[in-house]
Specification:
Blueprint: E1 3-7, H1 12-23, E2 27-32, E3 53-58, H2 64-77, E4 83-86, E5 92-93, H3 101-129, E6 132-137, H4 150-170, E7 175-182, H5 189-192, E8 194-195, H6 206-218, H7 223-235, E9 242-245, H8 247-258, H9 261-272
Helix pairs in contact: 1-7, 2-3, 3-4
Length: 273
């Protein structure tokens, strides 16, 4: 039986992904601070029965020892890992000038350093077995940084850079590394965003910009769409380094590469001012 280990799989895109892999016969280890095992009756994809299973293991990606213990617990229950998805993360919003340094550090600690800790915990097993795939959840905001989400955008851009660098480090061990950059997806991520009101009297477009962004998210793609793309990356013959979730976002990112950056950034200004 193929084995998936996914962090941040207790809600949103992660939960939909864990359910889909289980439905398709995989044994899934879901690592998060909050979560529970999913049995056959709880599979959410197409109301189908799970051919595999989802096992919940506690893991805090902000704690190096917690990551290592979680992977060790996985290896007590299986002898191999086929695919690793690093999906844990959250978002903050607010003007850069008024964002508390500790909040910015926490954003980077969870999204970026959490990815690093999780990667360091799983790599020894993948190296020892001589194969495996690592997939990181990034964001279109990594390529098209969003005003008033500067630190979230920066954390995802850092993940993209990490993935490209580490791919060349581990290629000789039979390990591939990819990132998936979703566009707007309708999940609980939106309501969980930590929004700062500081400085909004000065940055008067901040509230409107964040509200418009969250409206787009709530009207966005279903998380199951991203789950199917994760499954494709996990099972295709030769995965690409980067994938973009959603046709319209693929077009936007292509235009970003073709058009002058000054123009693209001006368009973003008009959208969020």
């Amino acid at each position: 039986m193929n084995t998936l280990v996914i962090s941040g799989g207790s809600s949103g895109i992660g939960k939909a992904t864990a359910s889909l892999f289980a439905e398709r016969g995989w044994r899934v280890f879901e690592l998060s601070r909050h979560g529970a095992a999913i049995d056959n009756a709880q599979c959410t994809m197409h109301n189908a029965q799970c051919a595999g299973e989802v096992v919940h293991i506690f893991c805090d990606v902000c704690d190096e020892e917690s990551c290592r213990k979680a992977v060790a617990e996985v290896m007590q229950q299986t002898d191999h890992i086929d695919v690793v998805i690093s999906n844990a993360g959250f978002g903050i919003s607010g003007p850069v000038e008024f964002t508390a340094i500790q909040d910015a550090e926490h954003q980077m600690d969870v999204n970026f350093m959490g990815t690093v800790r999780f990667t360091q915990a799983v790599l020894p097993q993948l190296r020892a077995q001589g194969y495996g795939r690592i997939i990181y959840t990034s964001s279109v905001a990594a390529q098209l940084p969003v005003p008033y989400q500067a630190f979230y955008s920066a954390s995802k851009a850092a993940i993209n850079a990490l993935a490209l660098a580490i791919a060349n480090e581990v290629k000789g061990f039979g390990i591939s590394v990819s990132v998936l950059m979703p566009g707007d997806v309708s999940t609980g991520f939106t309501d969980a965003r930590e929004k700062s009101m500081a400085g909004e009297a000065i940055y008067r477009s901040a509230h409107k910009a964040v509200a418009n962004m969250e409206q787009d998210e709530r009207a966005g793609m279903a998380p199951e769409q991203m789950a199917r793309l994760f499954y494709h990356i996990a099972t295709c013959r030769s995965p690409r380094p980067q994938y973009i979730g959603g046709f319209q976002y693929r077009v936007l990112c292509l235009l970003d590469r073709l058009l002058p950056k000054r123009f693209v950034n001006w368009v973003e200004y008009k959208l969020y001012s």
